[in-house]
Amino acid sequence: MKTTVVRTCAAFLLAASLAACGFQLRGSTGQYNMPFQSIYLAFPETSPLGTELKRNLRAGDTVRIEDDASKAQALFDVLSESRGKAILSLNSLGRVREYSLSYTLVFRVRDANNKELLGPTEITLRRNIAFDESQVLAKESEEQLLYRDMQADLVQQILRRLAAIKPL
Known about the structure:
Oligomer: single chain
CATH architecture: 2-Layer Sandwich
Structural class: alpha/beta
Distance between the termini: 58 Å
Mean pLDDT: 87
Order of helices and strands: HEHEEEEH
């Protein structure tokens, strides 16, 4: 009994000392140090992924998002963006039991002189979803929720890759 109290106190003191010294995981605040001050994002105006990426970049207060590519230090080119849905498994009657959803983005980053800072990069995310014929509307809503979750995850992966680019 006495040893568990001592261990608990020691764990609490360790946690308190780490919190007091300002320790935190890299990128855990959602803020990234980008190697450029301005960026042009070549997403269509109606792209939900582009909108979320812009929102996350603006939240950092260190990067300006330019509407004109000639004014930006970095150019983010979208080479392809696609969503997919494939049958993952069937039940004994040959009906779909499970789908595999995928979200793929291929992009590259160039500087103002057209020099590649980050070559063509593909990010593919996959999620599995169970299917039930008696709950079609609920499963469609769940599918849209999974795509939004993949989109948020994709934005975080893009931000990490942008932050890892060697300074200009």
